[in-house]
Amino acid sequence: MPVKTRWLTAAALVGVAAVGAVILFWPSDEADPQAYPGSVSGYSIDDAQRLSRVRLPECARAGTRYFVDPEWEQNVTFDFAGTADCVASFLSGLGEDSEHPDSVWPGTSGQPIRPPEGSAIPWVFATGTPVDTWYTVLPGNYREQVEIAVDRTTPTPHVYIRAIDLD
């Protein structure tokens, strides 16, 4: 094979490999079905956990919905339904006691936890529904405030989480 042909073949193979690498590693603009509408596209549930430093237990991952804030990507919102053991596992992973919330929302006005402004997250808490709430700041190089609300009035408790970057 002549030298020129070998160079052209090698260049073509390098080009194909480069295009393949870009396709494989470039974030997808397709919406993740677990992401709420309006969430920054191209992020997976794993990316959302990494951005917020909030770790979800394996028992909650399949049904978790999330929202990566377009204004500040370290601000991430999650919600999931899980068994009492799953909820306890999540809270203990944050250093919280599932039996002793910081407060119990009385359900007379407002909401115990709000979705990000401008998002299409349909969180609604009925008046009179008691909701357990926790507030914590994750330690580390940068701080993340985590607000958690747990509605235990349904057969499967529902957990609502907002992680807000403080730095």
Topology, please?
Elements lengths: L2 H23 L19 H8 L5 H4 L3 E4 L7 E6 L2 H10 L9 E3 L25 E8 L5 E8 L6 E8 L2
Structural description of this entry:
It is a single chain. This protein starts with a helix and ends with a strand. It has one domain: 3-Layer(aba) Sandwich (Protein Transport Mog1p, Chain A). It has 167 residues and is α+β, with helices and mostly antiparallel strands. The protein has helices at residues 3-25, 45-52, 58-61, 84-93, and strands at 65-68, 76-81, 103-105, 131-138, 144-151, 158-165. The longest helix is centred in the N-terminal third of the chain and has 23 residues, at 3-25. β4 (131-138) and β5 (144-151) form a beta hairpin.
Poorly predicted sequence stretches spanning 5 or more consecutive residues: 14-27
* Text of the CATH class: Alpha Beta
N-to-C order of helices and strands: HHHEEHEEEE
Q: Which topology does CATH recognise?
A: Protein Transport Mog1p, Chain A
Return the domain count. Answer: 1
Keywords, please?
about 170 residues, single chain, six-stranded antiparallel β-sheet, 4 helices, Protein Transport Mog1p, Chain A, alpha+beta
Summarize the structure.
With 167 residues, this protein is an alpha+beta fold. It contains four helices and six strands; from the N terminus they run αααββαββββ.
